[in-house]
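Before relying on records like the one below, remember that each one covers exactly one chain. Contacts with other chains, cofactors or solvent are not represented anywhere in the record.
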Amino acid sequence: MITFNEVKNNPKIKAYISKADESLLALGYTEHSIAHVGLVAERAEYILRTLGYDEHQIELAKIAGYLHDIGNIVNRKEHSQSGAVMAFRILDNMDMDAEDIATVVTAIGNHDEGEGEAVNPVSAAIILADKTDVRRSRVRNSDITSFDIHDRVNYSVIKSSVNINDEKTTISLELEIDTKISPVMNYFEIFLKRMVMCQKAAQKLGLEFKLIINNQIII
């Protein structure tokens, strides 16, 4: 089996992720670099490991998480589909098993809120890991006065964590937000589709999704 470490240390993959992030920076998007994809891989591992999935599934989820945004090098629009095609070629050239490639490609192709669905546990974990990455350090605009709504919402997040309860019935995105920077309503204005997608992904894993902002259960 091709391992996560092999994928993570592949110089071509690093270059594609870096260049994809450069394109998004030029377009004014928040950070989608190694930091983001690394966090998504780590969070996907946490979700599946906590729920008792085997090491093979966990490894595939980490690989899918690391590669999920690679399609941004082509275009932001439909980047999940172009990323899936790119990942197929990369992993096939690395001689990954066909069934494993299929799992990874499916997760990548279904991670975007426009068209994606949680069709298996790996794709559900990627959706939850990706859509819950909201944090101040993703904002790259240094001029607060020129923040757009995405900058304001991300910058307002002082603390962010994803937690599965001891009973393994609930997964929660817990945020501490500075409402002087961005009111809670702004969060829903731009992330409502993502939260609905998280709800469906959680259900695929037998969980209930909760959003907790400033110690208040929102959904």
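The chain has one domain: 4-217.
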